[in-house]
Design brief:
Elements (H helix, E strand, L loop, with lengths): L2 E8 L4 E3 H7 L4 H10 L4 E3 L6 H9 L12 E7 L12 H8 L6 E5 L6 H16 L5 E6 L10 E2 L3 E2 L4 E7 L5 E10 L11 H25 L9 E3 L5 H10 L13 H4 L6 H12 L7 E8 L3 E8 L1
Parallel strand pairs: 4-5, 4-6, 11-12
Antiparallel strand pairs: 1-9, 1-10, 2-3, 6-9, 7-8, 10-13, 12-13
Helix pairs in contact: 1-2, 3-4, 6-7
Length: 311
Amino acid sequence: MTSLVEISGYLPARSESIADFLQAYGLSDREVKIYKQYYGFSEIRTDPDLGMAGQLIAAGRQLKELIGQERRVRYVLQARTMPVAAPYPLNPLHEACEALGLRNALAFSLNQQACASALMSVELAGRMLAEDGDPDALALVFVGEKTFTTDAHVLGITAVMGEGVAAVLVRAGAGRDRLLGFASRIRGEFHRGSRMTAEDHERWAADYADGLSEVISCALDRAGMRPADIDLILPHHVNRLSWLKVLRALQLNQKDRIFMDNLPVVGHCFGADAFINYCSARDTGRLKPGDRYVMTAVGLGATFSAMVFEH
């Protein structure tokens, strides 16, 4: 059994309008209007004065369950979307481990599944802890990142990237949020990601909703559930229109089943979206004890992933 002991998040206080941000990257007024009116983006968060290590540390220090338990953390994983996170020889993950007192943990990064590396890292952390056989051991997963290259700011026609980090404390036994089912599927024909041809983009757009709904349904099946049993979906922040199609494919007509409050005001925070949404849904009472919820992620390349939890 894999469980989430606690989730915390860090979002920069500074907001930047989507219009100003996209125009700086050469998008036309018409393209900006599409991002705002149809995709649902309005603002993103950025912190030009705080680097990647500082954001990881800020998220980690909000974990109440970590205080005094640092020695129990056996693994620290950073789930990254981009293969390059900082200029050599800087290592933000190792800086964060040192600052948080996690000197005895094995620290490493995963990025092969882009934004979907976040859910895979939780799955991997749980498996490694279970194999170790120490019921007191913990793993810490960091998700979300700072846009280090200009290539990472705007992903084709899908999303606008904002800054935000979540810290996820994982254990192999019972915890606050119990993992019920996980599913992942790689669609290698879309391996070029944001550099796909126009024809590939058309096929991607046509297949996306069905691909994601199939993975969600598979995770639900492994949890012994149906789409109608979902209390809440905590989505990744790819444009609003795509989510309407996914809900239709799942035959979920109630739009209140999906938590979309953050999408307009934080943008797509790489792999951290679902975990940032968890913090908001928990703090606002949208996520209640006993609720069964789904976290989703889709990584360019292309990996579809979904996890089902009980809160």
